[in-house]
Fold this sequence. Notes:
Elements: E1 4-6, H1 17-30, E2 35-37, H2 44-54, E3 59-62, H3 71-76, E4 81-83, H4 87-106, H5 118-132
Parallel strand pairs: 1-2, 2-3, 3-4
Amino acid sequence: MVLTARAECFLVDHPDALRESIRRLQAYAEAGADVLYAPGPRTREDIAAIVSAAAPRPVNVLTVGGMGLRLSDLAALGVRRLSIGSGLSRAAWGGFLAAARAMAGEGRFDALESAAPFAEINDFFHEDRQRRS
Length: 133
């Protein structure tokens, strides 16, 4: 079992989200948490501060669009785990809504041109399954 402790200060707009997240994460580490998680920071500086304060415990980061950080950037900052939350489903819903609005509002179907062919979808899942076998 892995105990992941969360400090959601960034998500609830705490007035001093970074400081309070670090305080809570350090308390969770002292209590025995295996992984520390403060979802919400978006800057290199905040993430680096959390990783540093949490050391040597691994830190989990919630990745969102607009962060401007790649996987390699987060790894270089010392992040050990990533979550994407609802990111993939919201990206899919974004495409769905854009296509539906174009159809309903303008009678256009061109948004469907970017739809993945069934063969590509099947190949993706087949290759993923083979990698994990």
